[in-house]
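Weekly structure sync, notes
Attendees: PL (lead), two postdocs, one rotation student
Agenda item 3: pending single-chain targets
PL asked that the sequence for the first pending target be pasted directly into the notes so everyone works from the same version. It is reproduced below exactly as submitted, 438 residues in total.
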Amino acid sequence: MRFSVRILPLVAAGLLFGGVPRLLKGQESNRLLTLGEVYRQLDAASPRLSAARAGARAATFRVAPARTLPDPQFQLGLMNRNLPGLGLQDPLGMNQIQLMQMLPFPGKLGAAGRGAQAQADASLARADDLGWELRSQAAMIYYEIYATERSILVALTTQQLLRDIATTAQRMYAVGEGRQPDVLRTQVEINRMTEEILRMRAMRDALIARLNALLDRAPDSTVGEAQLPVLPARLPDLDSLVALALGHRPMLEAGQQDVRAAEAARALARREIWPDLQFGVIYGQRPMTGGRTDRMASFMFGFNLPVFAGRRQLQMRQETQAMRDMAAADLAAMEADTRGRVGVAYADLRQARQLRDLYRKTLLPQARVTVTSSLAAYQVGDINLMTLLDAQMTVNRYQQELYRLAATEGQSWAELEMLAGTELLDPDRIQNSETEPQ
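Predicted structure, written out during the meeting:
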């Protein structure tokens, strides 16, 4: 086996220390893409976010009108005219100006203003919550792109390694030191890796199209190579994350404002049975003989009569009470959902972190030792080539899983950020090659 002994050290170097290229083959540019850049583009370009913010601004403009008195009414009258001709009828004909003002019962304008302000605050909070939701969606896609790109890089390295082994197997078979099944099996593995790379590249294209849709860009707009942010080293305890979410999540703030708006509507409905007051002043004049003009003034006071209170005002009280109960129940449901989602994200985060440690500190080193042992055994003919290849493929699967677990951890942090309405990591600070999963 003189031939195999001479070339196997070269194969071993590729098996154990084959580097992963930094950029995808055929990638359009060397530009790196950070999660912070995605967030900034999303904030500036998202149509959904722009629509929500515009709706929130519109709601703020409803507050002042709700607190303002109804417009006064002005009337001009030509009273008691003769027909035909419209001449003044003696002695009742006159010209008249009337001004009327309705004054809501005390407390109605205040309740209406509080309700409008609460609704405006709820709209602002929902727009803020949508921003965090869109950030989370973008982050989920971003981390998927990162994991897919790194998996492609690992697959490309593995495929090149398989080509080298196939060349070695063919040369060994040509000189009678190898077996034909080894040559055929390496070709099958190369073709399988080609299929996997094509599938992952198509997956990356689909993910980029989804990200571009969030950013309101063409589906095929180019993006750089996704970089893994520096994930927090310390994991907060669950209780503090739940408290943070319950105190800062914008959706819960919107629910609280909905309750306040419903309470204001209930207070307004309780005052509807009290009549609104109406005041008016009338000025009239009538030309008299001798060039004189008779002038007169009238004053009016009135109010509406709630004669149908049982079918209108009292029903409004029942309606607004039910609306308040519904808002309170919705808020309680959102709080329960928030606690549950924080718990799920926290469990996913802990699992991903623990598995990353297991892969990085135990499984991957053991798999690499197995490759070394398999290589030595293959050199002396104790195992066949496929056992060696299976050992190396295990190393590559573990490398891909490390990238996938890093993406899962990042996605869990993004979910927690959305639920807490607070940034928990710096999206612009990226891990270098030494700290990235290996």
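Discussion points:
- The two ends are 34 Å apart (CA to CA).
- The CA atoms of residues 18 and 157 lie 7 Å apart.
Action: rotation student to compare against the earlier draft before next sync.
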